[in-house]
Amino acid sequence: MTRGKNIRMLTLLCLLVAAPFCAAQSLRIAFYNVENAFDTLRSPGKDDAEFTPQGEKRWDTRRYRTKIDHLAQVAADLSADLLALAEVENAEVLADIAQRVREMTGEGYLGICLESGDRRGIHPALLYRREVFSLTAPAEILPVPHNERGILYVKGAVLASGDTLHLFINHWTSRYMGQKATEGARIAAAQRLAQAVDSISGCSESPRIVLLGDLNDTPDEKSIVRLTALLPELRRHPPSGAGTYYYRGEWLSFDYIFTNFVPKAALLRLWTKPYLLTPEGMPWRTFSGPIYRGGYSDHLPVYLDGWIGGLSTKNPSTHRSL
User: Fold this and answer.
1) What local confidence, expressed as pLDDT, does residue 23 receive?
2) Is residue 190, in this structure, part of any structural domain at all?
3) Most-buried pick from 26, 135, 257, 272 (CB within 10 A)?
């Protein structure tokens, strides 16, 4: 073999080896229950009167702008490529958050918030970086028995790697009426979610799946056990802290990210910047009952760093560090 042919063969081999790494895209995926991100206006057919200037919460423009500033600060600092949210009233509120992030950082997010049948008018939503992710189909709300909010399903492409990503953004039924009384609704949500994932897996080869949200149950409770049994291919990334929600003296892990492409060893990290916490170390809420606290949320954000595309799903050591 001539020297020229040797060089060409070596070049081709290098390209074949390097290609998967060139295609890989780092991703920071995050979820945040933002605690009642309402505007100040009444919405026809919705039970949101308390979040108006004349309502119980005295929800005026000043309080609304403070809330938007707080949420934008978290989004800007967290700097996620995909930031799923719960308890957003509408697309206008989401647009205000994105606009404020742009003013703070110059970074551009696009948003999705589809209004569901929730009687209070709070919905799951998504902010995503336009240079990282692009929709390939219209987003939709998947109906869930006994849960008016449904599940926000988003399908899109990771631009650098070309991978199709399927996101399911959840906010399962709360425990307001009691854990046992509402348990069946969360189990129904787990079953509906599994059906949706199975449907995609049945018609797509090696689909990239992300399930995330406030599931209102801890990992050892029936709905989560049921979900992991129905979808064994998904990895529940273990949390790095005590919990995401503080209730009656106890930290609870209600907020999750599951994937089938980030190594299981990757930790689900809590975003615990001092500005999110009270002096006692609890989440600094916007409200405690009717009392205005002026804080961020009653939940802490969670995030996961990983890669998609190339050989990245087999290499947990390449996760981005803080």
Assistant:
1) 65
2) yes
3) 257
